Structures are given as structure tokens and as C-alpha cells.
Amino acid sequence: MYTKYTEQVKSVLSKTDLENFNLAIDRIILALENRTHIYLFGNGGSSATASHFVVDWRKNVSLKLGFYPNVTSLTDNTPLMTAIANDIDYSEIFSEQLKNCAKSGELALAISGSGNSSNVINGVLMANQLGLETISLTGFDGGEVGRLSSLNCRVNSNNIKIVEDLHSIFGHAVVETLLSS
User: Could you say which of 47, 50, 80, 123 has the lowest number of CB atoms within 10 Å?
Assistant: First the structure.
């Protein structure tokens, strides 16, 4: 089974256009080096990926450059998310946070397998409205999130497990690129 799955991952990776992934890595590294605030968000496994990126990027940047970058996962404050969901609407859990803390010139990284979750779409819309650069990691056809983002990195697969695996590789590639520079 493992060999079959890894062969599927390799096949999808070979069919995925990596140009935008490379552009996004360059942009994120520039933001990290310039201490530009980066906000990450997503649902479910993508939420876990956002949190994982924050840990890796903060720890490794601090080891390499000697400071903790401004990287925040909007999914890590469960009480705030549930308060917004309860008092406003679940579809606004990311946009409300961005509205209250993000500034023009910062960067938002939306992570969504389908690209069609209303809360992630609203987060990207708010980020665009506030003047943030928007990068998205998607799968499937990229969905609305991919179309709304200034730069979309789409994994060419409808298999959410493979999409999530390749999104995780993206986060690790940021660290590897940073450490090798």
C-alpha cells in the first residue's frame, strides 16, 4: 500500500506546475527576512498545516536569522474562532481576525484543498480589501480561493490526502530554501 500511495504522490507532483510554488516560496522568504507579518489560515487538515508552518518558520528563521518572524496562524486561537462563529458567523472566523489586526503590505496565506470553503474565501476577500498580498495553496481546480488570490499554488489532484501532503512539502521547502541561502 505504501508504495502504491507514494507512486500516486510522485505522479501528481510530476503533473503539478511548480512555477507558482517557487514564486510563492521566494515571496514568503522575502516577507520572513523583512519581518513582514504573514497570516495563515485554513480548515481541518489545512488548519493543522497552517499551525505546522508557523512552528517551522518561526523556529528555523530564528535559528538562521536570529529573530522570530511575525507569522500567525488564525486557526490557533480556538476561543476567538468560536466566539466569532457564535456571535457573527462561522464564515467570518478569518475575515474578522484580519479586519482587526492586518495592515496593507502584509501577506495572507490561505490553505484549502477545494478552495471553496466560505470562511477561507471571506478571509482572502478581506485580505485583498485590506491591501495584503494573497497567496493560496489549493488542490482540485483551485476553487474560488485560487481565483481570488494574487498567487495560487495548485496541486493538480482531487485526492485531498495527496493535496495536503504536497502542501506540507511546500512549508518544508520554505525552510530548506531559507536554510540553504
Answer: 80
Q: Which amino acid is at 85?
A: A
CATH class of residue range 21-180: alpha beta
91-129 residue pLDDT tens: 999 999 999 999 999 999 999 999 999 999 999 999 999
Q: How far apart are CA 64 and CA 40, in angstroms?
A: 21
pLDDT surpasses 90 at 145: yes
Strand partners of residue 107: 38, 133
Grid cell, residue 81, equals 474562532
Other beta carbons within 10 angstroms of residue 3's beta carbon come to 7
Q: Which residues have C-beta within 8 Å of that of residue 122, sequence separation ≥ 6? A: 91, 92, 94, 95
Cell of 1: 500500500
- Cell 477561507 found at: 120
At 164, list the grid cell: 495536503
